[in-house]
Request: fold
Amino acid sequence: MLIDFSVKNYKCFKDWNTLSMETGERLRKFAASNTLTSRTGKLLKNVILFGPNGSGKTNFMQAIYSLFRLIKSPTSDLSEELPYVPNALCAGCPEDPTSYRITFEMKGVIYCYELEHDRNQILFEKLTYWKNQTEVVHFERNSDQNQFDVPESLKDMTKRTRANRLFLSVAQDLNDFHSSNVMSWFNDVLLFYNVLPKQQRFGLLSDPMMKEKMLKFLNYCGIDVVDLVVRTREINTDETFRKAMQLLIPNESSLLRESIEMEELFILYNRYHQSGEVAGTAEIPFENESSGTRKLIMIGFMLISQEHPRVMLMDEFDIALHLELSKALVKVINSPENKNQMIMSSHTLELMDCDLRVDQIYLMEKDFKGSSSVYSLFDFEDLPSVARSDIKFAKRYINGQFGAMPTIESDEISKVLFGGVDE
Reply:
């Protein structure tokens, strides 16, 4: 389970910004449905980011994905640059490093992983865990001091660790217990919409009961699907393609093969005679489906299995979904039965009033210097004490009570588009 995530000097985030999944202090509203129990206390099942276009919602999601990529795809040699996109709107500012900090629970252990890097090297790296409520530093790396503080079993590897490779990755290669735990969390628990692992997307359909659940989920969402079928297709690749893919993904040896097996999902619907009688089925490739149906299928894959809870991120959750369906899905995510966590962004303000707690509503705002900040409604002094279930957050947001409102001048837009240049 995710506890919190912080980022600094990444795209529009100049200073530290934190999203916390910990519940607000003394806040009891919807505690039985919208929260989970962890070793640190109560955690939120769901957080929704709201804010104007261009305020930084997508960039915040991408910051988590950037850390995910750094961990999942280690550099192959010393010349390879790290993915580095610092804040670019501060004139005269030095190119400071990008910093991440993430805290989560994995297999009953609380971990905090910290990372700082620039374009060419890892500047700081630290893995901490808690044992019997005591903080233990598992390893720490500081390039400025050319210093490693690591367990005895890993000391031989410090001199072999490249400046642009994570020590976390090196330690995991040696089957270090805590490093492997952290890597497993990023591999198996943290999921992103549209980049789910293949086994998560299609393996579930091999279980007849899970497949039946998926079909009923889609039917109850208003999609008249009768079956879901996964087919394997072999694709021949030429040498130019293989070389190009090897440059893009250097550590993936399967891309060197002359043919690649691809799994494709097909959605089956009933076909009908003019009389209305069923005349067999028609197959629609997943890629040819509407964006709303594709999104529902991916949400179903993410939520339908509760055996191994996961943390899911979805930017622009409400795009291509009807308002009533979006509201229903938010309620399902916050239902007592769901054990997953989900972070999403949305422009649908009505979701603010969909049985959310104030600590589940986050706002994103960008100042005149182009620097974004993220904050929770729980930070407003008059809101945590409100116990009424009928309070409407969307109306108060539209009235400007919480900030993070767009500045739109419709008359000036019309003049620019349809009037003369000098008007």
The chain has eleven helices and 18 strands. The mean pLDDT is 86.
